[in-house]
Known about the structure:
The chain has six helices and two strands, in the order αααααββα. The protein has helices at about 5-35, 40-55, 60-80, 85-100, 105-125, 140-159, and strands spanning about 130-135, 135-140. A two-stranded antiparallel sheet has the order 1-2. α2 (about 40-55) runs parallel beside α4.
Amino acid sequence: MKLVPDVHSFLILFALPAATVAALVFVLIEDLRHYRISNRIVLVLVALFVVDAVLRADVPAAVGNVLFGLLMFGLLLIAYRFRAMGGGDVKLLGAAFLSLGMQPSLFFTLAMSVLTLIYAAGAEFGVFPARSGEKGLKIPFGPAIATAWIATIFMIHAR
């Protein structure tokens, strides 16, 4: 059963990106407050990808995104193993790479890196919240990941 084209377009072009942005704003706030990214919100983001993939019915693109997301998640587990980032950050990044796919991921990664550096500098000067750790300040990565993901969504939809 095919949806009415206007509803189908509305879901793909507006509703799903808006729901993703709303979930990412929640991630940003929760990670700033509690230094924690809930498994539930990561599952919501993955579910939004699945709905988007089903609505687009582009099997090769969906398979490519899944493979790329799994590859990146595997690489990120190495960072987790060496305590370079927390488990929530790894899961959120895995969901981001799954959802965005390979092509927009360069922009996403650059934006995330710049935002992380800005946050780290701000935390060093007491502008942004941070915690003291064994090796210096610990900052939440969720805000940079979420903001970069939102920026990437806007970049994709601005085309």
